[in-house]
Amino acid sequence: MKLLITILISLNFTFLVNAQAKKEIAVMSGHSEIQQVDRKGMQVLIELDEKFISKNWAQKLKEFGKVETDKSNLIIHGASIPDISSACTIYSNVTSTSKGVFVFWAIDLGSEYITEGHSKYDAAKKKLHDYAAGIYIADVNIQIAAAESALHSSVKNQEKLIKLSESLKNNTQKNAKEKTDLENKLNENAKELKSFESEELRIEARLKDVKATENHEEQQKLLKESMSITNNVEKNKQQKVSMENKLKENGKGRLQLIEETKTNASNITAANDEVAKMTKAVEVVKEKLKIYQ
């Protein structure tokens, strides 16, 4: 639970810090040595994770033809780029720097490279610019998915705690009813004991009278009644002990329910705050997506 809250707070902080921070996309002329030849082309700086960009850019290049790898370079022979060329060679690589990640490509038309001033330069530049904008959008969408997932987890936790609250409330009510029932039974038990004690006194007095008349049959009858009442008194006392023990357990259970209810109430407050934070985080990161649209 602590780990989940830490992750959620971390995500929330990241989203809020980066809110409204649109990345400036600038495509500029550049060159890179690929296969021992200085290739002239253009590059764009993207401030995202290199592994993410490398994988994504390699996938993007597949739209233009079969991608070959040469060390850290990507090459497409016989590439077809809409609005630029149906038969060209693309030389590309992704380089990480302290400023960010540079995505470079050089487009070789066979007799010349597309460089600044070429009729196709703006079209090639736009494709690189659109790619950078697209990957920023992809990154924001990943953030949205992460934020929504975190929100979903926090809502699930909130619902679980609310459900536990209802369960604790029901258990507390059952505990209170059990306490009342046990107290009522103990009162009935006490009344029953007094009745047995009164009956014992009556039989003792009757035995004295019967002994004086030497009525043996009546004496035997009264002795049996006396023994039955004695057994009932013993049973009554055992029931009393059992109910008193149950009442003690009931009291312990009540104290535990009180503590659990307090803890759960505190957890619900924290969960409500977390849901509010994550809801805000989702809203913020979705607003961030609008910047690129």
Describe the protein in words.
- This protein is an alpha+beta fold and 293 residues long.
- It has two domains: 21-142, TATA-Binding Protein (2-Layer Sandwich); 150-290, Helix Hairpins, CATH 1.10.287.
- Helix content is 67%, strand content 17%.
- It has four helices and six strands.
- It has helices at 2-17, 50-61, 121-213, 216-290; strands spanning 27-34, 37-46, 68-70, 73-81, 85-96, 101-108.
- Strands 1-2-6-5-4-3 form a six-stranded antiparallel beta sheet.
- A hairpin with a 2-residue loop joins strand 1 and strand 2 (37-46).
- Helix 1 runs antiparallel to helix 3.
- The radius of gyration is 43 Å and the shape is rod-shaped.
Gyration radius over CA: 43 Å
General shape: rod-shaped
Strand order of the largest sheet: 1-2-6-5-4-3
Terminal Cα span: 37 Å
| Separate helix tally | 4
H/E order of the elements? Answer: HEEHEEEEHH
- Could you describe the largest sheet, including whether it forms a barrel? 6 strands, antiparallel
Quick one: CATH class of the largest domain?
Mainly Alpha
Approximate helicity band: 55-70%
State which percent range the strand residues make up.
15-25%
Instruction: State the domain count.
Output: 2
**What kind of assembly state do the chains in view correspond to?**
single chain
| Count of DSSP strands | 6
Low-confidence stretches: 1-20
Query: Structural class, from secondary structure content?
Result: alpha+beta
Mean model confidence by pLDDT: 89
